[in-house]
Amino acid sequence: MSSLIKISPSILSADFSKLGAEVISLEKAGADYIHIDVMDGHFVPNLTIGPEVIKKLRPLTKKVFDVHLMISPVDNFIKDYANAGADIITFHPEATKDTSKTIELIKKENKKVGISLKPKSSIDLIKDHLSEIDLVLIMSVEPGFGGQKFMPEVLEKTKKLKEIIKSKGFNIDIEIDGGINFENCSLAKQAGANILVSGSTIFKENKGDLKKNIEILRKN
Ligand code: DX5
Ligand code: ZN
Predict the structure, then answer these.
(1) Taking 50 as the threshold, does the pLDDT of residue 6 lie above it?
(2) Residues taking part in catalysis
């Protein structure tokens, strides 16, 4: 099972003064994806990374850029993040008037489509779209900041989602994001998540030994 687990380190916890070097270090340390948290100070109370930054990082690695858009309205920015080099574009259903239209916009750019559910957002918001998407991102903290505490109540939702996906035979990744550490990562995997996002644990544990921290998250 663990060999199927992908680790997507969030560069929100990286040193922004040397972001390029940090991305290269993550690749060397064995990251599968690079998780890029995009915040607009409106959908969430924090501001982070614009498309120009992603464009500059793009030539440094071939790793999948897993772009988590926490911006509203999201539609106006999809083309910019696609052109900047995103591979997976994930949005929140609350950030669009028309979920199907947003999915179409991402597909038109030939990018993989993810939909994210905040801790209190129900599976009902996405269940009619499961045949159209590649990934569901389950938030295990309120979106906006790194370093928050994991909310175990989302594990039930993860299990339920996994059951639905399995029973319908869809090929959809389940990614979990927020407060993932060396203890709760196994619970997330057991619940059905196959991609783990982690910022603080990867960048801060074991004096920032990225390789070791990625390995532990993968194995535990
Ligand atoms: C929160 C972000 C997460 C977060 C993860 O809005 O989506 O990706 O940065 O960081 P940790 O692992 O520190 O919770
Ligand atoms: Zn994220």
Answers:
(1) yes
(2) 37, 177
